Amino acid sequence: MGNTRLLFFLAASIMLITLSLSIVSAATTINETSEAERINKAYNWLSNSVSGKLENTTSTEDLAFTLLALAYDDNIASQARDALSNKKSSAGCWPSASCKPRETALASLALARIGVTDEETDEWLMSQNGTPTEMTWFMQVDSNEESVCTISYDTFTYNVTLNTNKKLNKAAGSCLILSYGNYWFKISSACYEKKFTINCDKDFVASLFYQKPGATTVYISSDTKIQSAKGDADLKINSVCIKQDGSCNYEATAWTALSLVKKQDISIFLPYLVGYKDSNTRLLPDAFLYLLTGQEDYVTSLTNLQRKSGYWQADLTPYDKYYDTALAMLALQSYNFEKKFNTRAWLLNEQVQTGDSAGSWGSNKKDTAFLLYAIWPKEGAYIPFEESAKKELKCIDYGFYCEQSYNCDFENRITDYSCEDSSFKVCCNQKYEEKTRTCNEMGGLLCDSSLDYRCEGTTKSSSEGICCMGYCTKEAVNICESNNHVCRPDSCLSGEQSNSDSCPDKGDVCCEESNASIPSKKNNNGWIFFIVILILVAGLVAFLFRDKFKGRKPRFSEGGLAYSRRPGVPPVRPPARFASYSPLNRNPSLRRTQTDKELDETLKKLKESSGR
Domain-by-domain residue ranges, the chain? Predict the structure, then answer.
């Protein structure tokens, strides 16, 4: 009988577990299917919210993000185009009452999504440029041999010697002063507009470096010249920012660079954007820099900022977690990384499910539009008639290459051919080939990782490995960041809690999201099914072995019910309901034992004997 029960129990358990797995599997399939349904719901909510109302939308930013998301809809794209045109100033900028570079760049980017280009707008944006004079610039001349070089600028020519130890023997006039132990020239700020011509009697490399005041990191400019002996190398500082309200504005510069990436050489913006990255962390600068350069180190920095739940929210951000998440995912749109699914899952759990705002994020049109464009974009279908032929020329269809603008010299671009709108790539007649030059030829350094050195600055691929375009520094172990947390000076932010992980800088504290700040998951079907199955199995066990459970005597210790207690907790008397318990007070409905049967047989025989 015992074996039969055991077999029945095992068979029932297997059936229940199989059923639970099939249910959970079905729930997973439903979730994957429902993602497309939820995104369609978001698109429908946005379309219904703006259709016929765009003319009354006062915000250029809202119009721009709406057009970026809904460019596939001919009707709404036409409305958005007309609304933006009506809000444009005669100078070609937005909004007409108070032109702002950021809003103008966003409007230009959105209109370009449907094939509308405006040279007047591009010219206005470039007219807002300024020179970030706070940056310090250096020149390096390098050769594998001792070389005699001439450096010319204005009407003057200076002779200098590059020794075998890589040091320069003297300055080159008032514009080029010896610096960094005579390895580099420091360029006087009064000479930032000048062109320098270098000629050496041996093969040489000439480069420009820049540094933000007060910072230790030095960055190499993209303008690096490799020249044979007796050849001329021309170098000129070409660094601009976009000014807003009279001073360099990081966000305006970044959006302007993105809006012009397919039309102009945007390398002139990179020194400012790279040099002032650390001063603008609230704007997620790594997202902009990866979009503009495609360099992997910006991906690493950006993904390290992802919160445990899957979203991004920069410290002191001027926006919110939905906007910051959209910006980060726009940069990582075509980049596969482990936690990308976490972001989509978190967003779907955050999506409004009921009411008039169902399908949106935070009932906010701008955030909803930006998220759709960045993560679930639809190809723009509305193209003005006069631009349609040009738009149909796809770069890769004609045997050319879609490259990051950083990797394609402006003279090699084919501006009439297009790449994917959301990729911010340009059509190039040459494929970018990594690892074709030595690190020395690129003016960089090889950091010895075996000695725990790392690169401080940007990196490039070379024929020798990863080339550091800054300088090598001793690696400080950051246990905090290696565990996907963040080091902060003094104390953690609201919604975070400190932990014991160490940070490289003394005084910094390692912070992680507090449990209370992690959004609860709305879809817990898997756990619910698991709990239900546990309850069913427990019920089955209780049913099969009910006789044993009902007839079992409790264990007593020192005259009372046996129990265990936690250390430090005083003993507790057994509950009163157990005080009168006795094996004799058994339930009469319990099955009779073998001893009971034997007693009955004896009494029966005695009765029969006495009756004879």
Answer: 35-128+255-263+282-387, 136-238, 406-517
d(CA 279, CA 135): 13
Task: Read off the pLDDT of residues 396-412 as tens digits, 9 standing for 90 and up.
Answer: 888 888 888 778 888 88
How far apart are the C-alpha atoms of 367 and 313, rounded to whole Å?
13
Write down the pLDDT at residue 589: 37
Contacts by 347-354 with C-beta closer than 8 Å and gap 24+?
347/310, 347/311, 347/322, 347/371, 347/375, 348/34, 348/35, 348/38, 349/519, 349/521, 349/522, 349/523, 350/322, 350/519, 351/38, 351/42, 353/522
Amino acid of residue 124: W
User: What average pLDDT does the structure give for the chain?
Assistant: 79
Beta bridge partners of 358: none
Report d(CA 61, CA 118) in Å as an integer. 18
Q: How far apart are CA 415 and CA 428, in angstroms?
A: 9
State the pLDDT at residue 432.
78
Q: Has residue 41 got a pLDDT over 60?
A: yes
Structure confidence by residue, pLDDT tens digits, 588-598: 333 444 545 55
CA angle 470, 475, 480 (to 5 degrees): 120
Q: Which helix (H) or strand (E) holds 248?
A: strand 247-248
Longest dimension (CA), the chain: 148
Q: Cis ω on the peptide bond leading into residue 95 (within 30° of 0)?
A: yes
CA distances from 276 to 135, 216, 262, 283, 489 (A): 9, 12, 23, 11, 20
pLDDT attached to residue 18: 56
What is the DSSP secondary structure assignment for residue 268, as one 8-state letter? G
Long-range contacts of 86-90 (CB under 8 A, 24+ apart): 86/55, 87/60, 87/63, 88/121
The distance of Cα 538 from the centroid of its chain, to the nearest Å, equals: 45
Residue with tokens 């464009």: 373
At 480-508, the pLDDT tens digits run 877 778 888 778 887 788 888 888 766 78
Higher pLDDT, 424 or 6: 424
d(CA 68, CA 369): 7
Q: How confident is the model at residue 416 (pLDDT cuts 50, 70, 90)?
A: confident
Residue 603 is encoded by which pair of tokens?
A: 């009494």
Angstrom distance (rounded) from CA 428 to CA 414 = 6
3-state SS, 384-435, equals CHHHHHHHCCECHHHCCEEEEHHHCCHHHECCCCECCHHHCEEEECCCCCCC
Q: Is the model more confident about 455 or about 401?
A: 401
pLDDT at 339: 87
Instruction: State phi, psi for 480 to the nearest 5 degrees.
Output: -60, -55
CA atoms within 13 A on the CB side of 289: 27
**For strand 136-142 and strand 204-211, is the pairing parallel, antiparallel, or unpaired?**
antiparallel
Where do we find the tokens 């898997």? 526
Q: How far is CA 239 from CA 137, 182, 242, in A?
A: 10, 25, 11
